[in-house]
């Protein structure tokens, strides 16, 4: 429904998502992986460089992030999904910090005023959201 209200020409989609590190499939032990870490998945039309390694098979993406990426692939919309694998259940500053390299990406760079202030702003957002038990960014 969201995409139905948007002009598809010139559109580029970036999806940020988190999931448990236990969902990450690898031959090595997940205990040795530095958590949190980012992996990317992109549509064929997305031509920019991604800010982290691509998600390897047999890993899968589920739910709303998968639906958005599938929609973009079908309608030939450039899109990238950044999946953060984390070992915490509740969103925290360490997990959000994993997304920090994305602030220098071409698409997000124009949205950021001062990267040096980002950690302070994120901590304030998380402190505020703890009373509501949710975070909306």
From TrEMBL:
Gene Ontology biological process terms from the UniProt entry: proteasome core complex assembly
Presence of keyword Cell membrane: no
UniProt GO MF annotations: proteasome binding
Keywords: Chaperone, Proteasome
Protein's UniProt keywords contain Chaperone: yes
InterPro entries to which the protein is assigned, alphabetical: Proteasome_assmbl_chp_1
GO CC terms: endoplasmic reticulum; proteasome complex
PANTHER family hit by this protein: PROTEASOME ASSEMBLY CHAPERONE 1 (PTHR15069:SF1)
Membership in a protein family: Belongs to the PSMG1 family.
Protein name per Swiss-Prot or TrEMBL: Proteasome assembly chaperone 1
Native source organism of the sequence: Charadrius vociferus
């Amino acid at each position: 429904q969201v995409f139905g209200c948007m002009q598809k020409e010139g559109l580029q989609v970036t999806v940020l998502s988190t999931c448990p590190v236990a969902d990450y499939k690898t031959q090595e032990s997940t205990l040795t992986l530095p958590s949190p870490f980012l992996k990317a998945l992109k549509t064929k039309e997305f031509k920019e460089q991604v800010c982290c390694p691509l998600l390897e098979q047999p890993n899968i993406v589920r739910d709303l992030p998968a639906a958005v990426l599938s929609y973009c692939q079908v309608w030939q919309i450039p899109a990238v999904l950044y999946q953060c694998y984390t070992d915490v259940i509740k969103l925290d500053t360490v997990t959000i910090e994993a997304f920090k390299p994305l602030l220098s990406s071409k698409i997000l760079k124009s949205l950021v005023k001062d990267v040096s202030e980002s950690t302070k702003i994120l901590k304030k957002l998380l402190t505020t959201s703890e009373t509501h038990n949710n975070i909306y960014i």
